[in-house]
Write a structure and sequence with these properties.
Helices cover 19% and strands 45% of the residues. The protein is α+β, with helices and mostly antiparallel strands. It has a domain of 95 residues: Lipocalin (Beta Barrel). It is elongated and about 60 Å long.
Length: 139
């Protein structure tokens, strides 16, 4: 009697699992968590300013710079002024500044004193300006 009761109990416990389709037993992947914002997200946007010094020419007013995130802590910098070529710059944070991690370029944002001001030096031309727009947040 005890043995048949044990078999019946085990069968009852296994029956609901056996009745489920195989797909229900498959491992489900968790939904991907939203990406954590990094330095590139923080500096992305449109900036307007002036070329304040140029070793190969004169200064120029009204230059627009577009900073776009292209990877983790990496941005692409495009200019409305042909003298400043499009470049990709890796970023790092040092104290209160976000700056170029390596390479021949200067990329500087002081996150405390003037978080919307960007200073760049690309190809011997120095540009300085302020953020006028940020990219829309991704959903």
């Amino acid at each position: 009697m005890l043995r048949s009761l044990s078999v019946a109990a085990v069968a009852a416990l296994l029956l609901p699992a056996a009745a489920l389709p195989i797909a229900a037993h498959a491992e489900t992947k968790p939904a991907t968590a939203p990406r954590k914002a990094d330095l590139a997200d923080r500096v992305a946007g449109t900036y307007k300013g002036d070329v304040i010094s140029d070793a190969r020419g004169s200064s120029k007013n009204g230059v627009t710079i577009t900073v776009t995130r292209v990877g983790p802590n990496k941005v692409e910098v495009k200019s409305s002024y042909a003298r400043l070529p499009t470049v990709t710059i890796p970023l790092e944070k040092a104290m209160d500044a976000i700056l170029a991690a390596s390479g021949p370029y200067v990329f500087l944002i002081d996150t405390v004193r003037s978080p919307d001001r960007l200073d760049l030096t690309i190809d011997d031309a120095s540009w300085s300006g302020n953020r006028v727009a940020t990219p829309p947040a991704k959903k």
